[in-house]
Amino acid sequence: MADSLWAWFASPWALGLIGLVVGSFLNVVVYRLPRMMARGDWGEVAGYLGDGEGWRQTFGADAPKEAGALAQRIEGQLAALARFNLAFPGSACPHCNRAIAWHENVPLLGWLRLKGRCAGCAAPISVRYPLVELLTGVLFALAGWRFGATPTALLWCGVLAVLVTLSAIDWDTTLLPDVLNQPLLWAGLVAAALGWSGVPLASALWGAVAGFLALWSVYWLFKLVTGKEGMGAGDFKLLAALGAWLGWPALLPIILASSIVGTVVGLGLKFSGGLREGGYVPFGPFLAGGGIAVMLLGTGRVNAWLGL
Asked: Is 119 within a domain?
């Protein structure tokens, strides 16, 4: 009985349904986590402005009175803000602040039932919400198909959820938060050490090292040649995390696949006028996509498609 129940729970269909629910939560994380981080950043700014000794060590002079006053103002305004985290407040329309009913939050169906508009003010609801839910559901189902009805499938579903979240946040903000990147890296090494990921620990360790150094080297070479920054440190950490989960042989297909797709998408956005100000395209979503392809299809198959 227990075996059959587990087989159903970890089946592609069940994991797909779970993925829809998880995708709904990921939408919350994608929206709220950058704003929570911004509050923390402003708190650090206030701390620096109010640190007289640190100011003297850095600038060789006493801090101006305005710095301390501004620090107090920032701290006061932060303290006056309403509580805001992943659980509070409840979901509400950003246009009219109407609370979203539970049945309107049902993955996919809620958005379709509302026809993509708020029930209160009829403001449009971004299509990305159901797309994230659908993508997460499909990826979870594919993990069930790839790894079977095993605890390993659930483990990889967790990895997929983090990669979807990182991709969406990076696309919106060009940030790959350490609060997600670093646990993903360490979890990959621990999973390898415990034999959960199927990747030898040595391969995971060198995958993390080589993944970080590969993009770190490209970053510094580009900066030395052009004087500009071509990518952020979050990209190094993400590739290191993928190396920890998939092993060092997966790094080359991940980099090549992500570069090819990223170039095609970047050119498409350029010619369609869809590039954002500054003309850049975040690289994180393409790295994550390359990692997902290797995870679900296998390194050998992706290498064959790339002609390696």
From this structure: no
86 found inside a domain: yes
* Cα distance between residue 106 and residue 20, in whole Å: 9
Phi-psi region of 84 (alpha: psi -120 to 50; beta: other; left: phi over 0): beta
Domain span at residue 223? 174-306
pLDDT at 275 > cutoff 90: no
How far, in Å, CA of 92 to CA of 32, rounded?
A: 12
**C-beta separation of 125 from 96 below 8 A:** no
* Listed residues 67, 96, 125: the one ending a domain: 96
pLDDT band for 94, please (50, 70, 90 cuts): confident
Is the pTM here over 0.85, yes or no? yes
Of the candidates 9, 3, 13, 282, the one whose C-alpha atom is nearest the C-alpha of residue 137 is 13
153 lies in some domain: no
